[in-house]
Amino acid sequence: MSTTVEPGLIVFLMAFLFLFLGYLGVPVPFALASGVFVATTLTPISMQSMVGQLFNGLDSEALLAVPFFLLVGELMTSADVTRRMIVLAQTLVGHLRGGLAQVVTVFSMFFAGISGSSTADVAVLTKTIAPEMDREGYDLPFIAALIASAATIANLIPPSIMAVVYGATGSVSIAGLFLGGVAPGVFIGIGLMIFSFLFGPVGVRRARSSFGEFTEATKRAALPLIIPIIIMGGILTGWFTPTEAGMAAVAYIVLVVIPLLRPDHIKHLPRDFVHAGLLYSIPMAAVAGASAFGWMLAYLRGPDVVAGWIQHYAGTDGRTIMLLLAALFVIVGDFVDAVPAIIIFMPILLRLQELGNINSVHLGVVIVTTLAFGLITPPYGLTLLMASKFCNVPFSKALVRSLPLYVVFLSAILFTIFFPEIVLWLPKMLLPESVGCFKNPAGTGYICPQ
Amino acid sequence: MSNASIVLQRDRHLKWRAFDPLEWLLMVLCGIAIGGFSLSVLCDIVTRTIRHPWLWLQEATSIFFVYGSFIGMAVATRRADHLYLSAITDSLSGTKRTLAETFNRLVVLACGLLMVTFGYTNFLHGFGSFRMPSLTPLAWWYLCVPVSGFFICLFVVEQLVNGWRNGFEGQPRSETEKEFTI
């Protein structure tokens, strides 16, 4: 590499420019691209190839799944079909202490199985349950904190947009990441329910729903609840790739769910598509900038430098490497959106994965869980920002109420690091090849790496 | 779909009404792009299932996807719908605000100009490489970059001129809000 400026200095300059411009108010894709373009002038790389890198970052088949999972969330929210799932969640847990708080978490777990978008989840919950919680005496900062925390589950329980981006850029099995995300997703869900039960506001105690009410609510929510079966069933049976599964879910909503449940919404479908068309391009623009940034970082041997630092403290112990990476990503997630963070740091992750001999799906789940936590941490906690805005409560107050909930997330991160056998149990059972297992040549079953 | 239903009315003081039809058109193109690649993925599955795959569908999917992404990138610039880390600028006022907003937009303008200039060079070089199986020149894929860059520059100039005339201060932007004036 014939450059007159020290590569470390260029990396520092890139990172500084990105953060400085980003926090000044330059949109993320352009803040990233600016850092890269300035760095390009200090290296022998041509500007033409770096502009081309913006395009190359998006030219990936796996990324096609992102718009579909956003479109699913957009259609379900816009058609207001989600209310049926809220009613089902109410019949299940509405009678518990802090009933509506429990409903928020259970609904988020249902909704996570349909849409990969936390922001759609926040939009639904703040519109529907938040006003009712307010009437029942839950304080607004708690409502915002809980909704924001529960919405992060959408990034863990499949389908998850973060998992798609991680899989697409790191060449990791997306289906494996989907299945691996279930354990931390359920862990966080149960953790939030326990917290609400023990420490949250009491709310109004309701009578337990009768079996008849539960059956009726299940019947009414049955059509939307088939969507997770279509998505995961299609992927696991090998019928669909994740992209095709997303498309199948969209087709099911447009052709079955909306005509049967909200026929009057059909005339609004073109507007939903236009909205979703813009919505998917926003993270994709960040992907384009982040790809160029990640490429330049790799060219400047950034991964080797960071890997060197981490190796210095962790040696080649996989768990210690993951702990240090989790600590790094907790900090990164405070400042940078998850999608660009994954792409920028992917060369470093791949290097460390190799160094620590870590299962690629396991590491992916750890990183996605950590970045999901970043959605509720300041200053750039996107779902907390949204929830506090929609609940009309100052961000600082919502932040204070979310601090105790951090325990749930930190426990979930440690759980994913220290219990790979539980995290990888589902992928090993349902899709063994996704975690590196191969068919036993001597007979039935699979041989899996330890 | 009426113009008012999809053209964002926020930050009206930074926009020319004459460009509203352009925003409307680009938004509709985004919708067509996502509709187009949804349809092409659906056809891909169907034709594969009936064992008569149309291989060119994957190329169609890819071209819809990249054009949708880059057109969306351009229109999101006019609507201030991009992801933002923060907007320290929003908390400023007076001359400081004008200077900071101008600087931010000049950064975006520089990126847009680079996308136009070097994206166009890539477009010209793209006639020497081809996508399989249709052997369509890659240039038609690369074209989305300078096109997007052109619209980004156009919208930034619109915001700069109007900002200098009317001031940049207005409703604070939000990275979370997707306003549609229905």
Structural account:
- The complex is a heterodimer of chains A (450) and B (182).
- Chain A is mainly alpha-helical and 450 residues long.
- In chain A, 73% of the residues lie in helices and 1% in strands.
- Chain A is built from 23 helices and two strands.
- Chain A has a two-stranded antiparallel sheet with strand order 1-2.
- In chain A, helix 6 runs parallel beside helix 8 and helix 15 (302-314) crosses helix 17.
- The longest helix of chain A is centred in the middle third of the chain and has 31 residues, at 269-299.
- In chain A, 60% of the residues are buried.
- Chain B is mainly alpha-helical and 182 residues long.
- Chain B is built from six helices and two strands, in the order H-H-H-H-E-E-H-H.
- Chain B has helices at residues 3-6, 20-49, 56-79, 94-125, 139-142, 144-166; strands spanning 130-131, 136-137.
- In chain B, strands 1-2 form a two-stranded antiparallel sheet.
- The longest helix of chain B is centred in the middle third of the chain and has 32 residues, at 94-125.
- Chain B is elongated.
- At the A-B interface, helix 1, helix 2, helix 3, helix 4 and helix 13 of A face helix 2, helix 3 and helix 4 of B.
